[in-house]
Protein backbone atom coordinates (compact mmCIF):
# COMPACT_ATOMS: atom_id res chain seq x y z
CA UNK A 1 0.00 0.00 0.00
CA UNK A 2 1.37 3.39 -1.01
CA UNK A 3 1.42 6.38 1.33
CA UNK A 4 0.42 9.58 -0.51
CA UNK A 5 0.44 13.20 0.67
CA UNK A 6 -2.08 15.59 -0.92
CA UNK A 7 -1.10 19.26 -0.59
CA UNK A 8 -4.20 21.26 -1.51
CA UNK A 9 -5.86 24.23 0.22
CA UNK A 10 -9.30 23.72 -1.38
CA UNK A 11 -10.90 21.39 1.16
CA UNK A 12 -13.55 19.97 -1.19
CA UNK A 13 -10.91 19.03 -3.78
CA UNK A 14 -8.51 17.63 -1.19
CA UNK A 15 -11.26 15.53 0.42
CA UNK A 16 -12.44 14.28 -2.96
CA UNK A 17 -8.93 13.22 -3.92
CA UNK A 18 -8.43 11.58 -0.56
CA UNK A 19 -11.66 9.59 -0.89
CA UNK A 20 -10.79 8.36 -4.37
CA UNK A 21 -7.17 7.52 -3.59
CA UNK A 22 -8.20 5.59 -0.50
CA UNK A 23 -10.75 3.73 -2.64
CA UNK A 24 -7.80 2.73 -4.86
CA UNK A 25 -6.05 1.25 -1.82
CA UNK A 26 -3.65 4.09 -0.95
CA UNK A 27 -3.01 5.49 2.51
CA UNK A 28 -3.55 9.26 2.30
CA UNK A 29 -2.74 12.36 4.34
CA UNK A 30 -3.77 15.93 3.52
CA UNK A 31 -1.89 19.19 4.12
CA UNK A 32 -3.61 22.51 3.48
CA UNK A 33 -0.50 24.63 3.01
CA UNK A 34 3.14 24.39 2.01
CA UNK A 35 4.58 24.81 5.50
CA UNK A 36 2.54 21.90 6.88
CA UNK A 37 3.57 19.74 3.93
CA UNK A 38 7.27 20.46 4.50
CA UNK A 39 6.87 19.73 8.21
CA UNK A 40 5.47 16.30 7.39
CA UNK A 41 8.00 15.54 4.66
CA UNK A 42 11.16 16.92 6.27
CA UNK A 43 10.32 16.86 9.96
CA UNK A 44 8.75 19.67 12.00
CA UNK A 45 10.84 21.90 14.24
CA UNK A 46 9.32 22.97 17.52
CA UNK A 47 10.30 23.40 21.19
CA UNK A 48 13.91 22.83 20.21
CA UNK A 49 13.10 19.34 18.91
CA UNK A 50 12.79 18.06 15.38
CA UNK A 51 10.06 15.55 14.65
CA UNK A 52 10.82 12.51 12.54
CA UNK A 53 9.97 13.01 8.84
CA UNK A 54 7.11 10.94 7.46
CA UNK A 55 7.99 8.62 4.59
CA UNK A 56 5.62 9.16 1.67
CA UNK A 57 5.67 7.34 -1.65
CA UNK A 58 4.32 10.28 -3.65
CA UNK A 59 3.06 13.85 -3.27
CA UNK A 60 0.19 15.50 -5.15
CA UNK A 61 1.15 19.17 -4.90
CA UNK A 62 -0.94 22.17 -5.92
CA UNK A 63 0.93 25.23 -7.15
CA UNK A 64 -1.39 27.83 -5.65
CA UNK A 65 -1.09 27.48 -1.87
CA UNK A 66 -1.26 29.94 1.01
CA UNK A 67 2.20 30.83 2.34
CA UNK A 68 4.82 28.81 0.52
CA UNK A 69 3.59 27.89 -2.95
CA UNK A 70 4.08 24.56 -4.67
CA UNK A 71 7.22 25.69 -6.49
CA UNK A 72 8.88 26.59 -3.18
CA UNK A 73 7.79 23.33 -1.55
CA UNK A 74 9.25 21.26 -4.40
CA UNK A 75 12.49 23.27 -4.43
CA UNK A 76 12.98 22.93 -0.65
CA UNK A 77 12.31 19.21 -0.84
CA UNK A 78 15.01 18.72 -3.46
CA UNK A 79 17.43 21.01 -1.63
CA UNK A 80 16.96 18.76 1.41
CA UNK A 81 17.75 15.73 -0.81
CA UNK A 82 14.23 14.37 -0.53
CA UNK A 83 13.36 12.83 -3.91
CA UNK A 84 9.82 11.64 -3.27
CA UNK A 85 7.91 11.72 -6.60
CA UNK A 86 5.91 14.95 -6.98
CA UNK A 87 2.86 15.32 -9.23
CA UNK A 88 2.27 19.07 -9.52
CA UNK A 89 -1.16 20.53 -10.21
CA UNK A 90 -0.73 23.65 -12.35
CA UNK A 91 -3.01 26.51 -13.36
CA UNK A 92 -4.58 25.22 -16.60
CA UNK A 93 -1.25 23.87 -17.81
CA UNK A 94 0.33 27.25 -18.48
CA UNK A 95 3.72 26.48 -20.03
CA UNK A 96 5.48 28.91 -17.68
CA UNK A 97 4.02 27.04 -14.68
CA UNK A 98 5.00 23.66 -16.11
CA UNK A 99 8.59 24.69 -16.80
CA UNK A 100 8.91 26.41 -13.43
CA UNK A 101 7.56 23.28 -11.77
CA UNK A 102 10.11 21.06 -13.49
CA UNK A 103 12.87 23.52 -12.61
CA UNK A 104 11.75 23.31 -8.97
CA UNK A 105 12.03 19.52 -9.03
CA UNK A 106 8.52 18.27 -9.89
CA UNK A 107 8.37 14.92 -11.69
CA UNK A 108 5.13 15.36 -13.58
CA UNK A 109 2.34 17.90 -13.97
CA UNK A 110 -1.40 17.95 -14.49
CA UNK A 111 -3.38 21.04 -15.46
CA UNK A 112 -6.51 22.07 -13.58
CA UNK A 113 -9.29 21.22 -14.09
CA UNK A 114 -8.39 17.56 -14.55
CA UNK A 115 -10.21 14.27 -14.95
CA UNK A 116 -9.80 11.90 -12.02
CA UNK A 117 -8.78 8.86 -14.13
CA UNK A 118 -5.95 10.93 -15.63
CA UNK A 119 -4.67 11.94 -12.19
CA UNK A 120 -4.83 8.33 -10.99
CA UNK A 121 -2.92 7.15 -14.06
CA UNK A 122 -0.23 9.82 -13.67
CA UNK A 123 0.14 9.06 -9.96
CA UNK A 124 0.35 5.33 -10.60
CA UNK A 125 3.08 5.97 -13.16
CA UNK A 126 5.15 7.84 -10.58
CA UNK A 127 4.61 5.11 -8.01
CA UNK A 128 5.75 2.46 -10.51
CA UNK A 129 8.91 4.46 -11.27
CA UNK A 130 9.64 4.75 -7.55
CA UNK A 131 9.26 0.99 -7.14
CA UNK A 132 11.52 0.33 -10.13
CA UNK A 133 14.07 2.71 -8.60
CA UNK A 134 14.00 0.83 -5.30
CA UNK A 135 14.40 -2.48 -7.10
CA UNK A 136 17.34 -1.11 -9.07
CA UNK A 137 19.06 0.20 -5.96
CA UNK A 138 18.65 -3.10 -4.09
CA UNK A 139 19.68 -5.32 -6.98
CA UNK A 140 23.19 -6.72 -6.93
CA UNK A 141 23.06 -7.72 -10.59
CA UNK A 142 25.20 -5.76 -13.03
CA UNK A 143 25.21 -5.76 -16.80
CA UNK A 144 28.39 -6.73 -18.65
CA UNK A 145 30.44 -3.79 -19.98
CA UNK A 146 29.57 -4.71 -23.58
CA UNK A 147 25.90 -3.99 -22.81
CA UNK A 148 26.43 -0.83 -20.81
CA UNK A 149 26.48 1.56 -23.72
CA UNK A 150 23.33 0.40 -25.51
CA UNK A 151 21.13 3.46 -25.84
CA UNK A 152 18.04 1.39 -25.15
CA UNK A 153 19.42 0.06 -21.86
CA UNK A 154 18.67 1.47 -18.44
CA UNK A 155 22.39 2.06 -17.83
CA UNK A 156 24.55 4.24 -20.04
CA UNK A 157 28.28 4.73 -19.46
CA UNK A 158 30.41 7.44 -21.07
CA UNK A 159 33.82 8.94 -20.37
CA UNK A 160 34.09 7.53 -16.85
CA UNK A 161 30.51 8.42 -15.94
CA UNK A 162 27.47 6.17 -15.52
CA UNK A 163 23.83 7.14 -15.92
CA UNK A 164 21.40 4.74 -14.25
CA UNK A 165 17.92 5.56 -15.49
CA UNK A 166 16.36 2.96 -13.18
CA UNK A 167 17.51 4.69 -10.02
CA UNK A 168 17.72 8.21 -11.52
CA UNK A 169 21.37 8.42 -10.52
CA UNK A 170 24.54 9.72 -12.14
CA UNK A 171 27.79 8.24 -10.86
CA UNK A 172 31.00 10.20 -11.41
CA UNK A 173 34.04 8.54 -9.85
CA UNK A 174 33.10 7.99 -6.20
CA UNK A 175 30.27 10.54 -6.26
CA UNK A 176 26.59 9.74 -6.81
CA UNK A 177 24.21 12.49 -7.92
CA UNK A 178 20.49 11.96 -7.53
CA UNK A 179 18.54 13.28 -10.52
CA UNK A 180 14.93 14.35 -10.70
CA UNK A 181 12.77 12.43 -13.14
CA UNK A 182 12.76 15.33 -15.60
CA UNK A 183 16.55 15.73 -15.44
CA UNK A 184 16.91 12.02 -16.16
CA UNK A 185 14.39 12.14 -19.01
CA UNK A 186 16.17 15.09 -20.60
CA UNK A 187 19.50 13.26 -20.37
CA UNK A 188 17.90 10.12 -21.81
CA UNK A 189 16.58 12.14 -24.76
CA UNK A 190 20.02 13.63 -25.40
CA UNK A 191 21.71 10.23 -25.06
CA UNK A 192 19.33 8.64 -27.54
CA UNK A 193 20.26 11.37 -29.99
CA UNK A 194 24.01 11.26 -29.31
CA UNK A 195 25.99 13.22 -31.86
CA UNK A 196 22.90 14.82 -33.39
CA UNK A 197 21.64 18.34 -32.87
CA UNK A 198 18.54 18.37 -30.67
CA UNK A 199 16.39 21.48 -30.94
CA UNK A 200 14.85 23.21 -27.96
CA UNK A 201 11.45 22.75 -29.59
CA UNK A 202 11.89 18.97 -29.78
CA UNK A 203 12.85 18.89 -26.09
CA UNK A 204 9.69 20.79 -25.16
CA UNK A 205 7.49 18.49 -27.20
CA UNK A 206 9.15 15.08 -26.78
CA UNK A 207 10.38 15.31 -23.17
CA UNK A 208 7.84 17.59 -21.49
CA UNK A 209 4.83 17.29 -23.77
CA UNK A 210 4.45 21.05 -24.31
CA UNK A 211 3.09 22.00 -27.71
CA UNK A 212 2.30 25.65 -27.11
CA UNK A 213 4.30 28.69 -28.14
CA UNK A 214 6.64 28.60 -25.16
CA UNK A 215 9.82 30.51 -24.43
CA UNK A 216 12.30 27.73 -25.16
CA UNK A 217 15.10 29.60 -23.41
CA UNK A 218 13.76 28.11 -20.17
CA UNK A 219 15.47 24.88 -21.23
CA UNK A 220 18.84 26.60 -20.95
CA UNK A 221 18.49 26.53 -17.15
CA UNK A 222 18.19 22.76 -17.22
CA UNK A 223 21.24 22.44 -19.43
CA UNK A 224 23.26 24.63 -17.07
CA UNK A 225 22.30 22.32 -14.20
CA UNK A 226 23.14 19.16 -16.13
CA UNK A 227 26.53 20.58 -17.09
CA UNK A 228 27.32 21.02 -13.40
CA UNK A 229 26.66 17.30 -13.01
CA UNK A 230 28.51 15.80 -15.96
CA UNK A 231 31.20 18.26 -17.07
CA UNK A 232 34.70 18.55 -15.63
CA UNK A 233 34.49 22.28 -16.37
CA UNK A 234 30.86 23.45 -16.85
CA UNK A 235 32.13 26.75 -18.31
CA UNK A 236 33.92 24.81 -21.07
CA UNK A 237 31.58 21.88 -21.76
CA UNK A 238 32.89 18.85 -23.63
CA UNK A 239 29.74 16.68 -23.55
CA UNK A 240 26.73 19.02 -23.63
CA UNK A 241 27.45 21.42 -26.45
CA UNK A 242 25.37 24.41 -27.47
CA UNK A 243 24.49 24.73 -31.15
CA UNK A 244 23.80 28.43 -31.32
CA UNK A 245 20.32 29.35 -32.47
CA UNK A 246 19.17 25.73 -32.63
CA UNK A 247 19.68 23.66 -29.51
CA UNK A 248 22.18 21.17 -28.09
CA UNK A 249 24.33 18.20 -29.02
CA UNK A 250 25.42 15.43 -26.66
CA UNK A 251 28.92 14.04 -27.25
CA UNK A 252 29.63 10.90 -25.15
CA UNK A 253 33.34 10.59 -25.92
CA UNK A 254 34.78 13.94 -27.00
CA UNK A 255 38.03 14.00 -28.94
CA UNK A 256 41.07 15.22 -27.05
Helix content: 25-40%
Distance between the termini: 51 Å
CATH topology assignment of the largest domain: Rossmann fold
Side by side, the strands of the main sheet go 2-1-5-6-7
Spans where pLDDT lies below 50 across 5 or more residues: 140-152
**Cα-atom radius of gyration:** 19 Å
Quick one: biggest sheet? 5 strands, parallel
- Into how many domains do the coordinates divide? 2
**CATH architecture descriptor name of the largest domain:** 3-Layer(aba) Sandwich
CATH class of the largest domain: Alpha Beta
What does this structure look like?
The chain is α/β, with parallel strands linked by helices and 256 residues long. The protein has two domains: 3-135, 3-Layer(aba) Sandwich (Rossmann fold); 142-250, Orthogonal Bundle (Arc Repressor Mutant, subunit A). It is built from nine helices and 14 strands. The chain has helices spanning 11-23, 34-42, 70-79, 95-104, 116-138, 145-148, 181-192, 200-206, 218-230; strands at 3-7, 27-31, 45-46, 49-50, 58-62, 86-90, 108-111, 155-158, 161-164, 169-172, 175-178, 197-199, 240-243, 247-250. A five-stranded parallel beta sheet has the order 2-1-5-6-7, sandwiched between helices. The termini are far apart.
Quick structural gist:
39% of the residues lie in helices and 21% in strands. It has 9 helices and 14 strands.
Which labels suit this protein?
single chain, 256 residues, alpha/beta, Rossmann fold, Arc Repressor Mutant, subunit A, 2 domains, five-stranded parallel beta sheet, four-stranded antiparallel beta sheet, 9 helices, 39% helix, globular
